[in-house]
Amino acid sequence: MTEKKKWMVYATWGAALATGVLVGIVLVGKDGNDSGLARLVNLAGKADVVAGPSYELVLARHYLCGVRDEEHVSVHTNQLADVMGNYNGWEIVQAEPVKMILMKREQDIAPACKENGHIGIAADGMLALFHGLPAEQDVVQTFYRIDTARMEASLPKEEWENLKRGIRIRNLAEYNSVLSTYGEYQWSGQ
């Protein structure tokens, strides 16, 4: 991480921590009980005023199959430090005064790929991962061009037809197995 990014992260954390401490002081009375909270609720009459300002966490997951999904979590600034403990191993991609983007590279295929993924041949001759059957042409990820002439000559007709229809992928092991099996038919351009 560059020095500028580190400084920005520290400044953001410092601001969030200071806000959390300030909110904690306001919410807890001078005598150490929640009398400050009770007074604030009575005055405002709204629970969301008590909660204080919120901070947005964007959790971006990148899967091996090329899928990226995001989850947005709203966290009250006075709880940010506690919540961040849940995201050990996540990389801070961007930090702003009211929002932080965290990224995690998952060593698996996405749930959507497990649910309805098929590897097959795209119309342009590329080995590809599809959401659904290859006939629907909903490409999720492309790998490499296949030497279809060599493949048709080498493989049993049934195996070639299965690949054209699409081979169902349910987990990372199947994904890797299919890529490994057909890697030898990668077109070399000669």
Automatic annotation (TrEMBL):
It comes from the Bacteria. The keyword Ion transport does not apply. The chain crosses the membrane at residues 7-29. Signal peptide: none annotated. Pfam families: BofC_C (PF08955). Keywords: Membrane, Transmembrane, Transmembrane helix. The keyword Transmembrane applies. InterPro entries: BofC_C, BofC_C_sf, BOFC_N_sf. Residues 107-182 form the Bypass of forespore C C-terminal domain. This is BofC protein. It comes from Brevibacillus formosus.
